[in-house]
Amino acid sequence: MSDILEQITKPFSDGIRRLFQPLWDQFARDKMRFEKKRAAFYVDLAATMESQPRVNISVHIERIADRYPDEPKGRLAARWLDNYMIDGSFSEAIRDSVPEEDYAPLMVAERAGDLTKGLKELGGVVTALDATKEAVASIWLSTLFVFVAAQIFIGMYSFRIVPDIESSLPPNVPISDLGLIAVIMHWMSVSIRTVWPLWIVFIVASISIVKWAVPNYVGRWRQWLDRHVLPFRLYAEFQAASFIVALAAVTQRVNNKVVSVPKALQMMEPNASVWLRHHILRIVHNLEENPHGKGENFQTGMVDRDTEYRMMDIADYADVSEMLKQVGGTILETAPKELEKRAKRIQNTSRAVLVILVVAIQGGFNYMGWQFQDAVSTSGYSNAPAQISH
């Protein structure tokens, strides 16, 4: 039981640590800032290397370190230069400073003797994937904003406004005299004030479980979750797009050298998440069972049905490497646009939900206020004869 709890809470605690680590770790801050600009860096470095083909890459790295000593890329370049002097490999030198998905394409291009081309193409891939990330982030921000705003709005009415009205009622006027809406508002307030500690625990537990399950759960329900539940669907779509694009980059022909798909999968598997590793191993199994197969070996549920059919159709007249390149290019072109459209739909839906919630609660409160005034007036009139008689 303790192992299960540790698996569930570890991603959450690791996320908190990564979130706050830049506060005290200069290297973490530099990595975070450089990650957003690395696409342009790769393209610029490739252009410099292309214009000076006989100059060793260490000279370019040293120049960057000297020019920008107080900027993230300058400090990282100094680190890379030290690593390069030890390993003699650019991809190994930058491995701990860039996202894991950047390593394999650069390593393959470097070993094939065309690092310039690898940097240039990786820059284009990262640019497209960054646009996809921004669309995904926009979806999450919209959803989070509506959720937090709803909690604040409902809490304000439940803890402050409704109790204040009820405490102002005359003793001889029960809440039921204010009508059905007032009773609903009353029980909403009572319920929320009663269960809010459990609600907070539920929210934290749900976030922790989902944060663990999204990259780690690969059970019987995972494929259904990837198609119907937003966090799982966004993760699956982005990871699948990144995987196909990276695999296409690794298996492309460079200087008449080609890395086979099984070899490329073997290179990518150690750095993959549990979810991605699950699909990689299924693809490897399919390749072993059907060595002459092409697109059908990628039918693991990683991508949607249309993409699976597209992979099979292209593989009928092209080799697997070319198929991956074409599908990867299509994904890079369409994924950001599709996610942007979905982000707009979710934003509009979220705003509509928030407006409906605000109008409903505010309307209920206004109705409750009118009923309160009527009840107070009626109570005053009913008590007047007794006061005069007295």
Walkthrough of the structure:
The chain has two domains: 79 residues, no CATH class; 273 residues, no CATH class. With 390 residues, the protein is mainly α. The chain is elongated and about 95 Å long. Helix 1 crosses helix 9, helix 4 runs antiparallel to helix 5 and helix 7 runs antiparallel to helix 8. Helix content is 79%, strand content 0%. The C terminus is likely disordered.
Proportion of β residues? under 5%
Sheet/helix structural class = mainly alpha
N-to-C order of helices and strands: HHHHHHHHHHHHHHH
Low-confidence stretches: 384-390
Q: What separation lies between the terminal Cα atoms?
A: 71 Å
Counting DSSP H or I runs of 4 or more residues, the number of helices is 15
E-strand count: 0
Q: Any idea how many domains?
A: 2
Helix content: over 70%
Envelope shape = elongated
Provide the residue-averaged pLDDT. Answer: 81
* Rg: 29 Å
How would you sum up the major sheet? none
Brief descriptors of the model:
390 residues, mainly alpha, 15 helices, disordered C terminus, plasmid, Type II secretory pathway component PulF-like protein
Could you give a quick summary of the protein structure above?
The chain is mainly α and 390 residues long. The chain is built from 15 helices and no strands.
